[in-house]
Amino acid sequence: MKKVYIETLGCQMNKSDSERISGILSQFGYDETTEEKEADLLIVNTCSIRQLSADKAYSLLGVWGKRKKDKPDIKIGICGCVAQQDKEKIRKRAPYVDLIFGTHNIYELPELIKKIENGEKICAITNKPVICNQNDFKIIRKDSVNAWIPIIEGCNNFCTYCVVPFTRGRERSRQPEEIIQEAKNIINEGFREITLLGQNVDSYGKDLNNPKITLANLLRDLNKLEGNFRIRFVTSYPSDITDDLINAVEECDKVCKYFHIPMQSGNSRILKEMNRHYTKQQYYETVEKIRKRFSNVAITSDFIAGFPGETEEEFQDTLNAMEELELDYSNTAAYSPRAFTKAGKMTDLFLSDEIKYERLNRLNEKNKEVCLKSNTKFIGKVLKVLVESKTLKDGKTILNSRADNNKIVHFESNKYDIGDFAEVKINLAQTWCLFGVAI
Ligand code: SAH
Ligand code: SF4
Ligand code: F3S
User: At residue 12, what are phi and psi to the nearest 5 degrees?
Assistant: First the structure.
């Protein structure tokens, strides 16, 4: 067997893609290795959400290019979101790259790999995704407890700051029966958690007619499958969360009471400039509606600091939203201009790095404060958790688990193991995690 090393940058969709790439390559004689130095084929699966992520990809290519000078037989590949948008640039900056393939071309790998083995240099980037049944291909999953299932790819929303519609294309839902089959395989293989993935999971099914399906009904169908497992879904778009979806989450015992709903900004003018299809008020109403329905629910979010033209007062609205909504956790980032996007062209409104990073710091401080507040609320409560890993500390076994509401919970026990569900009574809260005792 030859060896392939895959470096995965970016979101869960990329992580899931890498598991599929690894599976396909394994059928063509490549074993995945975690040792970069022993690899015959090096692949970087890239992210282009911010300039920093794209830069990482190019610096890695630089390192690998130098290695190829000493070992000319190694092959170098690049895929993912940077590859999809930057093929000419990659060719110029890293002419030694053997294989460039886009987010739409993963399932062409069997042919591509044969070609590079024959010494060809290949660039496979199309704007049309390859249509296939993904269950025909092997998947090598990295985790032993959680398994990802991409249910919808691409995005039609065109938020003015975001490159994803340009790197992932328009929305494409997978057929429900294909998803159910993948879920059955996962359950049979012993996984305890299924995470349904999509840039906008609530859009699932909008492009399918035969049969007509929604995310809510897909959850109901998956919930009927037999087995001891739980279901999550990410990422939700605030104004696309329907009452039927909330009902489905309530009805389905296997579906976690957890919502990741990026707000991006707490100010309605900025939201409009971002082309987000909701106001601050509407977001607040959605959060209130969800909190009323579920007692231990967690709601997490994403925020951008320093969008072009954002004033100090408008930024304050974001800090206030985090606090008033008692958000359980937020991913934060400073605005980064991206190619092809509308906001990327608003150059006269760009804020200085100094302002952006100063705001990001305050956002992170507020995030810490509200996370601790949120975690403290769980002291004395019992959460259902799934054990993900364990560590030995001073001769004791500490289990690292995640509650249904996505909170990280540590507890000491010799009774439970990785992949077990447990009920844990929380007795200590820190900023990023909870501690408790199994009951
Ligand atoms: N589909 C999801 C988000 C996908 S991108 C949604 O609609 O919310 C993940 C996160 O990256 C976004 O939520 C946003 O907060 C951040 N992001 C996207 N583009 C960005 C940019 N140009 N600069 C800074 N952060 C960005
Ligand atoms: Fe990007 Fe907006 Fe689509 Fe999310 S909804 S992927 S932020 S364009
Ligand atoms: Fe990055 Fe592409 Fe995901 S840009 S965040 S890897 S969809």
Answer: -65, -30
